[in-house]
Amino acid sequence: MKTLSLFRAAGLALVLTGLANGPALAGDSAQAQYEDMYQQAKAAQKRAASVEGEWRDIGKFLKKAQALAKKGDYEAAFKLARKAYIQGKLGYTQALSQQKVDWPSYFK
Amino acid sequence: MLKRIITLAGTLGLCLSLATPAQAGPKEDLARFQHFYLKRFPGVPLKEFANGVYAIDKVSRENWEAIEEFPPYEPYVEEGKEMWNTPFKDGKGYKDCFPDGPAIKADYPRWDAASKRVLTLELAINECRQAHGEKPLKYKKGPIAILTAYIAWESRGKPTHVVIPDDPDARAAYERGKRFWLARRGQLNFSCATCHAQNAGKHIRADILSPALGHTTHFPVYRSKWGELGTLHRRFTGCNKQVRAKPFKPQSEQYRDLEYFLTYMSNGIPLNGPGARK
Amino acid sequence: MRTAPFPPLSGMALASAMALTAGLAAPLQATAGPSAQALEQGRKIAFTRKLGNCLACHHIAGGTAAGNIGPPLVAMKQRYPNKAKLHAQIWDATVANPETPMPPFGRHQILTERQIDLLTDYIWSL
Fold first, then answer.
1. Domain layout of chain B by residue ranges
2. Residue A108 to chain C, least CA–CA distance (Å)
3. Does C82 reside within a domain?
4. Does A58 touch chain B (CB under 8 A)?
5. In this predicted model, what pLDDT tens digit does every residue of B51-93 receive, in sequence order?
6. What is the pLDDT of residue C29?
7. Which structural domain range is residue C74 located in?
8. Which residues of B are catalytic?
9. Which of A78, B60, C23, C24 gives a 20 to 30 Å CA spacing to B154?
10. CATH classification of the domain holding C118
11. What pLDDT tens digit does each residue of chain C (126 aa) get?
């Protein structure tokens, strides 16, 4: 019972710190977390591009993120890389939804 | 009673013919596309759409007519004529690649069956240059725009007449161009149709959205915003960036297919390049 | 050894706990409206080109050279008696109309959730 509530507390802590959202593990260093996020973002960018759905700023965000990481600001770099990752996913979803697009109703 | 049967049969027949087109293809798309704009802007004849917003807005037209008294593209046309008449390093010239030139704008874009792709004027120009030992020109502005300004000027009055041959690859390129034009893209989620069809004629801030019908007739264009000439693919690039989509490269397959579709949609409208726009 | 997650509450503690939750679940109308500061933040988001850029398409009192792609933003409480519906419209207008020209400010993360909250309050006040 004591261990049970301990687990609950740990889970709550994870959720509250938002680390449960990211793909990185809670125990990793900030640098490792960033690098993982960067790779995820790169993959998302590639995937969006593969269906002609890449958004304008993804490349810029990733460049900026790398620059921030070089300076050692892994927290800011991570945030920017995650932004790029999310935009990559959104662009991919958007492109897929438009693949069979047809004349809108106002053309009929 | 008989009258009722006949009316019913007639209506049914009409419904059937509208609902089940023989094979919904480019011809049907063209009719649908042009009909949309002719209905949206009644009183504007088809040919007038070559003038974009100036065909549909009085105030803009007055400003534009004033500009056209001393057209900003005129010096470029002169420069383009010089380019056309300047021989290549090997002694040949553009006339050798384009015997019918310089009034050749209406021949492009066209389907090139041999290379299975849409051939645009700019692409053909660079292939001509490379065949004669010259460096290719960049595709958005500068010399390519200057040369095509002269070609466009000489081609004025010729009707847009893109052909989609009965060839599955040509048809596929057309369809890709059409889907590109209709698809939402970028973080702002706009398609070309959103601005240039659905909301054509409306104001976005202080600008008026131009109708897509007639979009291709007046390129290359002197845009006040650019302070110089630019090609159609330069404009494609800008538009894609504006909706926060990553643009494609000028003369990429995506933009050539788009040009193919878009130019076809203006079939019948006389060429009037180079143009002047805001 | 206890199996229940929480120890049973005493009568007094239970009553206070219920009062607290009742207070938290109170309808929005019972709470005070957005501060003048918050409304100003929302207005800034509406009028900034890189953020809401609402003037591109909508006429808003106090704005100049507004577009007319969307309806003018007036009498908003009458048009959207339920503020949550206005929030949803700003978040993703394609739900109400798949052919809408309005960008999905929330779904496409053009604005942050906080920005959309502030913007909604401001627009609703028009």
1. 25-71+164-277, 74-154
2. 13
3. yes
4. yes
5. 999 999 998 999 999 989 999 999 999 999 999 999 999 999 9
6. 52
7. 34-124
8. 239
9. B60
10. 1.10.760.10
11. 444 545 555 555 555 555 555 545 545 555 678 999 999 999 999 999 999 999 999 999 999 999 999 999 999 999 999 999 999 999 999 999 999 999 999 999 999 999 999 999 999 999
Q: In this structure, is residue C9 part of a structural domain?
A: no
pTM score, two decimals?
0.85
Tell me whether domains B25-71+164-277 and B74-154 share a fold: yes
Which chains does C contact via 3+ CB–CB distances below 8 A?
A, B
Selecting from A52, A54, A104 the residue whose C-beta is nearest the C-beta of B198 gives A104
Top CATH class of B25-71+164-277 equals: mainly alpha
What ipTM did this prediction achieve?
A: 0.88
- Strands B203-204 and B110-112, by their bridges, are unpaired
Selecting from C67, C108, C110 the residue whose C-beta is nearest the C-beta of B204 gives: C67
- Interchain CB contact of C28 with A (< 8 Å): no
Total domains in the fold of chain C: 1
Pairing between β-strand B207-208 and β-strand B203-204 as defined by DSSP bridges: antiparallel
CATH 1.10.357.10 is right for the domain spanning B74-154:
no
pLDDT for res B16: 44
